[in-house]
């Protein structure tokens, strides 16, 4: 079973799962969902939740109709609803002794390498602290995101950044059918998809509810991102009680399988940078360490060229100035100049603040 093998799981829940058609908050559903999360945590799974609902919660509080909202008004309503949404999660999850944190992201945040790297480090630290990050689209500053309701794609980017094994999209249908199941009674559920071809895209029908703006088309786009990120994706019926347990027990859903491994996807992402921002020259000891799959430490750095920021893509050269690796720097060029040749224990004293010990972490580096 795919979920059993997953260490990091991203779960996306839409507005229609939190608020019904009569604008009532589905408190019992969320309570049962929290039990699902608790059981996953007991199995040592690391969970990230991507949730819609800020605008819907704001509309409920202000007694407004979401359909007639203009974008600038939506941003204000989202600001009001955001507090309502997180309070709802907090009071529900605390009953299951689940600690939660909030992260606000836009699609732009996930598509800039430096911001994406910072987000990944935040996820890792929250996991270590025993917290479940709840990610909300930053609707108060987003524009096109609100208009198009692209939280499915945001969830797939979060899965990509976090190195997730599985993305679960909880929908109002059990998965992708051969035809629209709400119209055609003989529609059949596709259980497993390895290749998204034109036929698959053709049968992806739009299904819009009052509170949710996403359809099957955006879910297919999310699946494409996951497939190229080495991440499995599943579309399942979220309207059921204990929806995650249902996936595990019954597996009545649609799975999209990755085309490449997570490691290959990570390497492809790093190596595909158009223009590295700088270069560092390392000694033979550091070169050997990289060959053994180790991270690059400050002690092995001999020279820094170029001006770059934390998170930028840089080249790693050996003593003969031949490129041996590429990676995402955990430090700026100015910082590396101050710490190069020194032991990791000295970094805090040299820079005057606490930071990472690796100049390039092994997960952020590719040998060439």
- Report, as a whole number of angstroms, the end-to-end distance: 35 Å
- Domain count: 2
Helix run count: 15
Question: What is the succession of H and E elements?
Answer: EHHEHHEHHEHHEEHHEHEHEHEEEEHHEE
The order of strands across the largest sheet is 3-4-2-1-5-7-8-6
Stretches where pLDDT is under 50 for at least 5 consecutive residues are: 145-149, 206-214
Q: Bin the strand percentage.
A: 15-25%
CATH architecture of the largest domain: 3-Layer(aba) Sandwich
CATH superfamily of the largest domain: Acetylglutamate kinase-like
Q: Tell me about the biggest sheet?
A: 8 strands, mixed
State the helical fraction: 25-40%
Task: Count the beta strands.
Answer: 15
Structural class: alpha/beta
Shape: globular
Rounded mean pLDDT score: 86
Radius of gyration: 22 Å
CATH class of the largest domain: Alpha Beta
| CATH fold call of the largest domain | Carbamate kinase
Main attributes of the structure:
single chain; 368 residues; alpha/beta; Carbamate kinase; Archaeosine Trna-guanine Transglycosylase, Chain: A, domain 4; 2 domains; eight-stranded mixed sheet; five-stranded mixed sheet; 40% helix
Provide a descriptive summary of the structure in words.
There is one protein chain. The protein has 368 residues and is an alpha/beta fold. 40% of the residues lie in helices and 20% in strands. It contains 15 helices and 15 strands. The chain has helices spanning 15-18, 27-42, 54-62, 71-93, 107-111, 113-129, 144-148, 151-162, 198-203, 216-227, 243-250, 262-271, 284-291, 333-339, 347-351, and strands spanning 8-13, 46-51, 99-105, 131-137, 166-171, 192-193, 232-237, 254-256, 278-282, 296-297, 301-305, 313-317, 323-328, 358-360, 365-367. An 8-stranded mixed β-sheet has the order 3-4-2-1-5-7-8-6, sandwiched between helices. The chain is globular. It starts with 7 loop residues before the first strand and ends with a strand. Mean pLDDT is 86; it is low at 145-149 and 206-214.
